[in-house]
Input
Amino acid sequence: MARKRRKRWHPPGTPPGTLAAHPEADKEPVRITLFRYDASFLEERTLTPGEIGSLSVPESGVLWLDIAGLSDPGVVRAVGERFGFHPLGLEDVLNVPQRPKVERYEGHLLIILREVRLPEPPEQVSLFLGDRVVVSFQERPGDAFDPVRERLRQGKGPIRTLGADFLAYALCDAVIDAFFPTLEKLGDEVEELEEKLIASPSRERFHEIRRAKQRLLVVRRAVWPARDAMNELLREESPLIRAGTRPYLRDCYDHTVQLMDMVETFRELAAGLVDEYMSSMSNRMNEIMKVLTVIATIFIPLTFIVGIYGMNFDPQASPYNMPELRWMYGYPAVMLLMVAIAAGMLYYFRRKKWL
Output
């Protein structure tokens, strides 16, 4: 069946920095959550779009604005105006899907990743990192950030004592680590398909293999550029990223490398399953052709004998008459001869191990 292509691009000739919701954006209201914290203080509350203009960069601590939903470009515009984010970065937030990347602007960084949680469609996650400010944009509610929120609420680890760059790392790490359960599930599915294929190589198994390969391709398209983005962020010479955060970013980069190894391993297994399916089908066809060839070979001499005795000659008129035609036991004798020939040929084929 033909797959529906996403049509999310702007019309040709659209001015750069145009903010418009894509046609597939959910029409649900945008959900805005604010986290303001430091080592001894945490504020968490839900905001309305009208409250964005009254926000201010904290003198100490970190402000995290988590925005779920891209149906209202006005919210994205208001955030950009309030914190001075570049219009091209804001356009990348709405014009999804973007390739995972890191963009450097004056006074802030834009980090774009993709989150894959099958069977849900992939989702773009955009992070703006500024001085003591982190703003995250997601396509829809439901994400991998819950562990980060719990660490903030309970004060676990160093997250509330470090800066906005550490929060940005924690969010990136949460998105990347969410790939591991998905890949483990796909790996189990590929191994199960291998067992099913050995037991019964059918057309349904082939379609299941193709679907598994397509899902692995979706993950690969998200992980491969994410590895490059994490490497670029690790090497980024920006005052927004402190030296103490770089070891954590290096660990995040290592996770992307590990994910790529897993993706390539499972893709090779899936490709091997396709070859195994084609080999099984070829062997099955060879077995069928062998059986048909044996049957045809057995009937060739039998047809020859029947053809001889089926010729319309008058045994009295012909000088070379066929005495078997007037012999009382001619018919059963010919039948026995034909059975003996067929049995002899079967015995010969089995001795040759052709059967």
Summary: Confidence is low (pLDDT under 50) at residues 1-5. The radius of gyration is 36 Å. The helical segments are 73-83, 87-94, 146-154, 164-177, 179-199, 203-235, 246-309, 330-351. The chain is about 50% helix and 15% strand.
